[in-house]
Amino acid sequence: MTELKNDTYLRALLRQPVDYTPVWMMRQAGRYLPEYREVRKGAGDFMSVCRDADLACEVTIQPLRRFPLDAAILFSDILTIPDAMGLGLYFETGEGPKFERPITCKADIDKIGIPDPEGELQYVMNAVRTIKKTLNGDVPLIGFSGSPWTLATYMIEGGSSKAFTKIKKMMFAEPQTLHLLLDKLADSVILYLNAQIAAGAQSVMVFDTWGGVLSPRDYKEFSLQYMAKIVDGLTRHNDGRKVPVTLFTKNAGMWLEDIAATGCDAVGLDWTIDIENAKARIGDKVALQGNMDPSMLYAPLPRIEQEVSKILSGFGEGGTGHVFNLGHGIHPDVNPDHAGHFIESVHRLSKPYHL
Ligand code: CP3
């Protein structure tokens, strides 16, 4: 078993006692850090950083040099799987991710294969191995993937979207075709996450950024069903420890009971729900991750601290089973000192909840 100097994050996910509430930030490595922008400039672009294990490791560690974060997250992207399926991922400045060859019909789906994690995606596993070695047991390493539904939105829309008309057209006109794609994606995600775990990831998270654009019935059929399949297919013990799995659907406050029923260890919350309400509904089954509005980091430091304190008291009594985080990724124009104050406040203000 890899010795861990700080296992607070893993313990909180398993609802075991901890001394303080652990914290990490979605997108903690990224453009708000000048040292990240420097590395990306040197490499040329974002995917070149992802493809180089030493650079991916460097930017993963950067936020941990600045702040006492309780976990590191692999530096990569959810769109590595569709890229490995041959869709041709590229980034247009200011416009986010795009695909050269989006999915348009059943024939496109029949053509795509399930990527070999130690083949087309070996660069991701190499990054995991390098980061794990470099962390040297300081904090746990989080692996991740996109949810089948969220990956499919990018693959069918050809990039980011607001109304999701192309994928919804397929969903309502040809549901079986979409199911074929989602099933291939679920199988791919299972292999991909299990390979990350074998390479050293000590917990995994599934990002379902766009599940919240569905009706309750469609969410269950087209997103949650496939995340449940992933939870069932994951390696849940490795290297002498449980490997906790966190599911995060943005805008899913209405469906927390259904998410918790998948058998995941933790549910990620965005900021549109009170954590107190979430805890009352599912806190006896799973840990909760979240849930400060990332825009709160624009506020003056005392206001950030007040919000941290509100969220901690909302989770309340006992305190374990809570991993503090933002409700979505940190914005690129946030002052890093505000992020630092946020992290320090969580540690300081949470201690009384763990006596
Ligand atoms: O959290 C971390 O620090 C780990 C790294 C990480 C990235 N993307 C790096 C990244 C993680 C976990 C992701 C997940 C991801 N990627 C999601 C799910 C979470 C979410 O944010 O909703 C999604 C939907 C994507 C797809 C994606 N990748 C988009 C929409 C973009 C453009 C966003 C933007 O801000 O321009 C990316 C690119 C991306 N992924 C960047 C980073 C640091 C920015 C690249 C750059 O310009 O340097």
Task: Write up this protein.
The protein is α/β, with parallel strands linked by helices and 355 residues long. It has a single domain (8-354), classed as Alpha-Beta Barrel (TIM Barrel). It is 48% helix and 13% strand. The protein contains 15 helices and eleven strands. It has helices spanning 8-13, 34-43, 46-51, 53-66, 80-87, 106-111, 122-135, 148-157, 165-173, 175-199, 216-233, 256-260, 275-282, 301-315, 336-350; strands spanning 72-73, 89-92, 96-99, 141-146, 203-208, 237-238, 241-242, 245-249, 266-268, 287-292, 322-326. Strands 1-4-5-8-9-10-11 form a seven-stranded parallel beta sheet. Strand 6 and strand 7 (241-242) form a beta hairpin. Helix 4 crosses helix 7, helix 8 (148-157) crosses helix 10 and helix 9 packs across helix 10. The chain is globular and about 60 Å long. 49% of the residues are buried. Coproporphyrinogen III binds at residues 26-31, 40, 46, 73, 75, 77-79, 96-97, 144, 160, 207, 209, 329.
Short description:
The record marks 77 as: Transition state stabilizer. The chain is α/β, with parallel strands linked by helices and 355 residues long.
